[in-house]
What does this fold into?
Amino acid sequence: MINDYYSNNAIIKIIKNKIASEDVVELRDFLKPKIAKKLFKNMEKLKFLREEKLMSHSYGYSTNSSVLKIVINEIIPFILDITTIKDMDLSIVKITHKDYILLHEDKHKLFILELTNEWDDTYGGRITFSDGSGTTKNITTRFNSFILSNGKLRFFIKYSHNKSKNKHKYMIIGRFK
It folds into this structure.
């Protein structure tokens, strides 16, 4: 399921070193293309529950077991190869018009698997990491990218404004415990 490139031991070593030295690492074309497209299609069909907490976030979420099973069986072994993490919370998130995640006070090691087709960052909804004092790292939305954070930065998702009407941004977020 994971792109064969990321299964190479030399590449895994490079990724480990990057995670240790950089706050955020992005791995492009993370899943094999057919798998990424299939996972995206499955996510489009999910029923999402709305969760709105004014001072925290607004988005749709799902705990669909068939999608999360793919993550658990295929992605978690990769994460265990590159980190010492033993446990995490997983969520499937759908960002639409007027959705956001505010900058959290707590810092988490986490991953975000971006599975969004046809999204333009001018719609809003951009993933941004920040140290809380003005230094930021923006992540451009790319289908099938895997973002890892070493927990030194906090993240937020910019408000998704009127240009995003009828558009959906899908991602799987894993927060390490």
